[in-house]
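ENTRY TYPE: protein
WANTED: fold as C-alpha cells:
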Amino acid sequence: MKKAACLAILGTGSEVGKSVVATALCRLFVNRGIRVAPFKAQNMSNNSGVTAEGLEMGRAQIVQAEAAKIPPHVDMNPILLKPTSEIGSQIVLLGKALTNQKADEYHGKKTVLFSKACDALDRLRKANDLVVMEGAGSCAEVNLMASDIANLRMAEYADAPVVLVSDIHRGGVFAQIIGTLACLSSKQQKMVKGFIINRFRGDINLFKDGVRWIEESTGKKVFGVVPWYEHFHIEAEDSVVIENPAAMSVVKPGVPTIAIIRLPHISNFTDFDPLFDLQGIDVLFMEKPRDLTDFKAVILPGTKNTRWDLRWLKKTGWADIIKKYTDADGHVLGICGGYQMMGRFVHDPQGLEGTSGTSKGLDLLPVETVLKAPKTTTLTRFLWQNVSGVGYEIHMGETQILEGDSLFSIFERNHVPCQTEDGCEMHDSKLMGTYIHGMFDSPAITKKWLNTIGIESIDVPDENRFKARDNAYDLLAAHFKNHMNTDAIFDLI
C-alpha cells in the first residue's frame, strides 16, 4: 500500500511556534480535502490529555487532531515524556505509562523507542493522505543528533521535506536560521526546503530586505513571515508560556481576581484557558509568595510530582499563606495533584515520584492519598449536584475521603456507564478538590463554580468549548494563509 506523504515542521529552538504552525497546516490541508494527521514522535510535556480509548497523549497533538477534524490517537504522539525532576521523566509509550527514568537511562532505550515511533508513523501513513510531522526543540542539537527521535532522523525516515520555523520576536532571527543550517550536514541541509518566520511585530514591509538576505544567503525560500496574533487563542503546548510570572501581580480595584499557584511541576495548565477567556475577571499565575486577601479564589493545579511541590509550598511560605487565606473563609480549589496536596497525607510507598515515603499534606480537606500504579486515564462525565460536565482524569493513585462530602458524581468513564464519586468539599464549598481536569470546558460547571466563589455577574458564553476551539483553528488557518505561501508549501508534498 502506498504511504502518505509527510511534511516535517522543525524549529531553530524551543517555543518558536512549531506546534501552532503544524496546527495551522493541518486545518489548511484538511480544508483542501486532504486526509491529514499530525505526528510528533517524542513530546516532552506535562500538558497531556486522554483519547477516546482512554489512553494518554500530548495535548499539542490533540489540538492538531482537532484542527485536522479527526479523533486524536496515540499514534500521533507515540512517546510522551512527563518530567518529574530536572533529570528524570515518566515515559508514556503509546498511551500507557511505563516507568520513571533518568535521562541517561532513557537514551539507552532510544533504539527501541525510535522503532516504535516509526511503526506509529507508518500506521498513520496508511490511513491518511498526508502526515504533518512536528519536531522537538531545536533540530540542530549536535550532541543529540545521533540518537534523535523527533527531528531530522525521523524526517529522513519519512523522506519528508523540512520547513524550519524561527521566532523573530526573540531577536537574532538571521543567526537562528544561518546558525541552524551551519550545524547540519550537507545532506541534512538539503532536506530543509525553506523557512517560516514566526511572531513578527510591526510593519512587515520593513522586513522585505531581511527576507531577501535570507533567501540569497541560503538559496532557500522564506515561505512566510507570520505576524503576531491576538484575536484568537490556541492552546499552548508547554508551561514555558507561564514561566516567570510577575513577582507582584496587581489586583485591580473592583475586578474579581483568581490566583493559580504556579507549581514547579505544574501540569495541564490549559485547564484554565476558559477562565482566561472570560470578560470581567482577572486570572493570575502566581509563583512568588504574596498575601491572598484580595483574591476571590485560589487554585492549586495539577502537578507531575505531588510530594516535591508540596515541599515547595511549605518551603516558600505558600502553605502558611494559603492556610491564613482559608482561615479567613477564602475559597480554594485543588485539581488532581492540587487535590492530593490539600489532604492530610500523601503516601508514595513504591517511590513512583522519587524517594518512597509519606508527606504531610496541607490538611485543608479530610482526605488521604496513596500513590500507586496503574495510572488512571479516563474521559469522564460527571454531575455537580444537578449540573453536568465533561472532563478527563490522568493520575497515579487513589484518594480516600475520611469525612465530609464528595464533590462530583461520576456517571460515565471512557464511554462506559458507572456510578461512583469524585473529590471532596468542605465548609460550604469553600474548600474543594477533584481529580477531573478540563472541568471549566463545561460552561454550566464554570458558572456554578463562579457563583460558589461569589462571582455571579460574569457572563459565561454557552458556546461549546470544542466549537470555540474549532472557530479558533479556522481563524488561525486564515491568518497563516494571508501571510504564508501555502501553495509553495503544498508543492513540497
